[in-house]
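Researcher: Let's do a round of design. I'm pasting the structure tokens now; please hold your answer until I've finished.
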């Protein structure tokens, strides 16, 4: 088959031929129609993601949309599905791929292939994280790093889920402004020194009684936010804050003072492959697809033929998610 193939961790994939995948029992063979270039796809292809096996060559791509080659469970041959690739080295940037039954989700007719492929992974980031935090309508959410594709959807998903108040923090002023139209009640610029930033974060954490933090950044901005969550004095009962770590755009590590955990109601969680099961991710995405089939969300993507993978791999897509079509 034709596919994008990663031959080296320090070079873009090339468009080449690759052996056809052969399904094992319990797996489905899929004719791929669309697969998107998410952050995780890049970091698996350069070997930096915790999910990287270190084995070369392989086809990149973690999810996509396609048609079932033969029936699987309740789904007939030809069914249009969103799927997650579960069988290394067969990723989704190819004419064919493989998926286990837990990650085969039939798509509503209203949702076209490219939209579903583009939006699923960034949407999963907050739908699954909010479930892990046991979010309840009326609770207040702060999104750290809200200006990216996943953060913009997180604002809309929290809003649609009935969040009381939504605070969006990010560094891009135009994107922050746009987030107000998408549902953010307040925004905080990350383009300030740690001290004033901590003060601005503390004001919103306390003023709006933030219950849940969705963190796409880690690194220095998260360090500042965690210092703002820490409390002073001995005479308070600290409010519970469920802090969900989702992405690490600002750095893979940070310094966390022991007193932050002792003085506050901070509960640290992560959300991603591993901390959430495929069944949990599938359930969250099924609900999301059904919801946007009726009430679409703002999301920008553009499509390109898969044979252009080499030229487009490192291109700046200016905020639009890139969807490859074999
Ligand atoms: N765990 C999960 O389930 C899951 C799912 C999807 C994504 N993710 C992760 O979430 C993160 C964001 O993904 P995405 O899809 O939103 O990516 P994206 O659309 O490419 O957006 C990345 C965003 O990160 C911001 N950023 C980068 N470095 C920053 C820094 N030092 N300080 C502040 N902001 C910074 C950029 O801000 P500017 O606009 O200012 O450039 C941009 O808005 C990635 O780490 C991704 O791997 C996790």
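Researcher: That's everything. Go ahead.
Model: Designed sequence:
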């Amino acid at each position: 088959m034709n596919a994008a193939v990663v031959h080296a961790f320090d070079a873009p994939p090339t468009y080449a031929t690759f052996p056809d995948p052969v399904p094992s029992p319990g797996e489905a063979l899929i004719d791929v129609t669309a697969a998107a270039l998410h952050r995780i796809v890049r970091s698996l292809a350069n070997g930096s993601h915790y999910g990287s096996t270190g084995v070369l060559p392989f086809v990149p791509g973690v999810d996509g949309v396609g048609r079932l080659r033969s029936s699987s469970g309740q789904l007939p041959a030809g069914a249009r599905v969103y799927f997650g690739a579960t069988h290394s080295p067969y990723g989704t940037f190819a004419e064919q791929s493989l998926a286990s039954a837990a990650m085969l989700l039939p798509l509503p007719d209203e949702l076209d292939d490219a939209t579903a492929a583009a939006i699923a992974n960034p949407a999963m980031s907050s739908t699954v994280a909010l479930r892990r935090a046991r979010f309840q309508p009326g609770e207040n959410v702060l999104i750290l790093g809200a200006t990216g594709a996943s953060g913009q959807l997180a604002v809309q998903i929290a809003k649609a889920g009935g969040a009381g108040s939504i605070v969006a923090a990010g560094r891009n002023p135009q994107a922050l402004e746009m987030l107000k139209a998408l549902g953010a009640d307040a925004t905080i610029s990350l383009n300030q020194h740690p001290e004033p930033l901590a003060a601005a974060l503390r004001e919103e954490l306390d003023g709006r009684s933030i219950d849940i933090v969705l963190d796409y950044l880690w690194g220095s901005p998260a360090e500042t936010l965690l210092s703002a969550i820490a409390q002073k004095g001995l005479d308070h009962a600290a409010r519970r804050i469920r802090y969900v770590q989702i992405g690490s755009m600002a750095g893979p590590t940070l310094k966390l003072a022991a007193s932050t955990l002792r003085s506050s109601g901070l509960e640290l969680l992560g959300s991603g492959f591993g901390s959430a099961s495929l069944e949990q991710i599938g359930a969250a995405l099924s609900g999301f697809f059904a919801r946007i089939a009726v009430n679409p969300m703002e999301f920008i993507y553009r499509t390109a033929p898969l044979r252009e993978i080499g030229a487009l791999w490192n291109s700046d897509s200016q905020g639009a998610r890139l969807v490859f079509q074999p």
